[in-house]
Design brief:
single chain, 38% helix, 269 residues, alpha/beta, globular, 10 helices
Length: 269
């Protein structure tokens, strides 16, 4: 008895082709319906809802965004900070304190489902959250020309989007990606529909002063993503700060003081 033929079937040149099509269709299904669940991984809240300076702001759609606002000294800029994945604004309180001690304002928020923000994170809901922060600054008479947008990792997505929507003082990206899908599929052309946060496409329209900070050994978002974004930016004022020996999650362990200083100095220019 030919067990090989029974188990595997009759060979055909069409079989690898059909297999590739099946795999691609499964990837498309995941990209369309489950990408947000894979991209966003909210941890348990690292801070209490009574954190000093925290406000829970409800949008007209009924979404609640947790916003922490440390106000700037007169004539000093405000950093609008979007954090990375698997963390919330509470994880960044020591860094915020360092920037605030230099006179800078800091306003940070949590994506839907993170910290004490309600809802579920997606590209659209994160953009609504950062728009809520923008409106909060307007309400508090903080001019957009004094706002420095800062995005770390997945936070580069809403940050680049907001920079394309307003005339900010500057844009600072820490360990950014060219797009969410390009992290998983590093190809020179898109292969899946409905990519999330097309930073490379958007940054080509942003002439805001730009600072990019990236670890040379980043194992999550390759260093080349930062390089591509820097090359694509049309800004006449841009800087690239490469950190040797630093990966993705240990970036501030390797060069935390340098990053804090570099961000503050760039914001104060």
């Amino acid at each position: 008895m030919d067990w090989k033929r029974i188990l595997i079937g009759k060979w055909s040149w069409k079989r690898p082709f059909y297999s590739l099509i099946s795999i691609y269709l499964m990837l498309v299904f995941v990209a369309v319906f489950f990408a947000d669940r894979i991209i966003f991984i909210p941890p348990p809240p690292s801070y209490r809802s009574d954190l000093p300076g925290l406000e829970l702001i409800e949008s007209p759609e009924g979404e609640v965004t947790a916003v922490l606002h440390l106000k700037a000294e007169p004539d000093k800029p405000t950093l609008l900070f979007s954090h990375g994945n698997a963390e919330d604004l509470g994880d960044w309180l020591p860094v915020f304190g360092e920037w605030h001690s230099k006179g800078l304002g800091v306003i940070a928020y949590d994506y839907p489902g993170y910290g004490h923000s309600s809802g579920t994170a997606s590209e659209a809901s994160c953009e609504r959250s950062i728009s809520c922060v923008r409106n909060h600054l307007k309400f508090n008479a903080v001019p957009e020309s004094s706002v420095v947008i800062v995005g770390r990792s997945v936070g580069s997505g809403p940050s680049v989007w907001l920079a394309s929507e307003m005339n900010a003082k500057a844009l600072i990206l820490i360990s950014p990606f060219t797009s969410a899908f390009n992290v998983a599929f590093p190809l020179p052309f898109p292969i899946l529909p409905r990519d999330r946060f097309p930073n490379l496409q958007r940054i080509r329209t942003i002439s805001t002063p730009l600072l990019i900070i990236h670890g040379e050994n980043d194992e999550v978002i390759p260093f080349t993503h930062g390089e591509q974004l820097f090359a694509a930016s049309p800004s006449n004022t841009k800087e690239f700060f490469a950190i040797p020996g630093a990966g993705h999650n240990d970036l501030f362990d390797v060069a935390g003081e340098e990053i804090i200083e570099r961000v503050a100095n760039f914001a104060l220019k």
